[in-house]
Write a structure and sequence with these properties.
Strand content: 15-25%
CATH superfamily: GIY-YIG endonuclease
Order of helices and strands: EEHHEHHH
Radius of gyration: 14 Å
CATH architecture: 3-Layer(aba) Sandwich
CATH class: Alpha Beta
Structural class: alpha+beta
């Protein structure tokens, strides 16, 4: 089975702080962002709402896309998000299983 490669954008809230990342395991990465495993930027600014994501089969291509997105303007990123997610809904539930979601809401 081929690995998947995800490029994603997180936010602190609508029109809030943005973070662009890449991963081969979106479920694990979203869980880590939600519980604050990653110390640094995303924890400091409470950037843990998934508002945009794309998937492919090449991690090399995903890293290239991540770099392109990071080099774009904030307004360009906002437009990218709003093309598919105009309400800035947190899409992370699509990638987290119910047991993970339950543990997070219970504070485990």
């Amino acid at each position: 089975m081929a690995k998947k490669a995800y490029v994603y954008i997180l936010t602190s809230g609508k029109n809030g702080t943005l973070y662009t990342g890449v991963t081969s395991n979106i479920e694990k990465r979203m869980h880590e962002h939600k519980i604050g495993t990653y110390k640094g930027f995303t924890e400091k600014y409470n950037v843990n709402k998934l508002v945009w994501c794309t998937v492919g089969s090449s991690i090399v291509a995903a890293i290239e896309l991540e770099k392109k997105i990071k080099n774009r303007s904030r307004q360009w990123k906002i437009s990218l998000i709003e093309e598919t997610n105009p309400s800035w809904v947190d899409l992370s539930a699509d990638f987290l299983d119910s047991a993970t979601t339950r543990r997070m809401t219970e504070g485990s």
